[in-house]
Amino acid sequence: MSTPHPASPEARDRLVLGVVGGSGLYEIEGLEEVEQVALETPFGRPSDVYTVGLLPRAGGLPPVRAVFLPRHGRGHVLLPSEINFRANVHGFKQLGVTHLLSVSAVGSLREDIAPGDVVIPDQFIDRTAGRAQTFFGGGLVAHVQMGDPVDAGLARRVAGAAEAEGARVHVGGTCIVMEGPAFSTRAESNLYRSWGAHVIGMTALPEAKLAREAEIAYALVALATDYDCWHQSEVEVSVEAVIAVLRANVALSRRLIARVAAGLPVSTAELPYPRALQHALITDPARIPAETRRRLDLIAGHLLRAPE
């Protein structure tokens, strides 16, 4: 029997949890059999080394393999614009991740979303500029569906875990993703409110788009740290104020991750990841350059027949 392609459903039948940590979350707790893994990818170097280990599951089930990466690097050395999102997501795929939980600090655009609240957005509006948005190109064209960018099954589990940890949770909503690193002007903040957005951050895109191309289920835990600058009764956003709330949120996020892991099924059949590339590849396989095939093998190789 031939070995299945590493991106094929046959090779991804066991659920593997990835966690990408945002501002303040540079490690997760409770990992056993820990190892540090440094990777290179066809898209460059990820933000840092990956921490790989096992997190306990409830109910006597075997532990879940978990992979953690600090998005900004340990010590927070990367601006949002400097993050190599393609390398980060490709590295998660190399390590077998099927479901990716993204933890991110955000500003609130709604009165009822207070600093310290948890939001589980289900939509994004992209206001970034100049970031590499796709793995594809160079002779292979793909268009994935992004109408529902967040995996509903994973998001439900995350929301339930946050509620069980005593957090004030807002399920659903739209996250504006801006370029940064400066915070919004007041005019911009009010514009985003007029669009019906709920929170604003700097890192969920293109992360969510690349996860979809990599056929990894994605959910965002958005931790509100401030009211952005629209809320004129509040003091203007400062790094000090953000960090103060951020530190309070870090302990919550670590507990949340452990609770999510404890409730995950063993098989991806019970919590499927998106098969987003099944009908997304457009290019005639005979026209795909050999180098492009090599670069994109882990992403799309399971769907590409050998060149004739």
Automatic annotation (TrEMBL):
Keywords: Glycosyltransferase, Purine salvage, Transferase. The record marks 184, 239 as: Important for substrate specificity. Phosphate binds at residues 23, 71-72, 104-105, 203. Its EC number is 2.4.2.28. GO terms for biological process: L-methionine salvage from methylthioadenosine; purine ribonucleoside salvage. GO terms for molecular function: S-methyl-5-thioadenosine phosphorylase activity. InterPro entries: MTAP, Nucleoside_phosphorylase_d, Nucleoside_phosphorylase_sf. Substrate binds at residues 202, 226-228. GO terms for cellular component: cytosol. SUPFAM superfamilies: Purine and uridine phosphorylases. Pathway: Amino-acid biosynthesis; L-methionine biosynthesis via salvage pathway; S-methyl-5-thio-alpha-D-ribose 1-phosphate from S-methyl-5'-thioadenosine (phosphorylase route): step 1/1. Belongs to the PNP/MTAP phosphorylase family. MTAP subfamily. Catalyzes the reversible phosphorylation of S-methyl-5'-thioadenosine (MTA) to adenine and 5-methylthioribose-1-phosphate. Involved in the breakdown of MTA, a major by-product of polyamine biosynthesis. Responsible for the first step in the methionine salvage pathway after MTA has been generated from S-adenosylmethionine. Has broad substrate specificity with 6-aminopurine nucleosides as preferred substrates. Homohexamer. Dimer of a homotrimer. This is S-methyl-5'-thioadenosine phosphorylase. It comes from Nannocystis exedens.
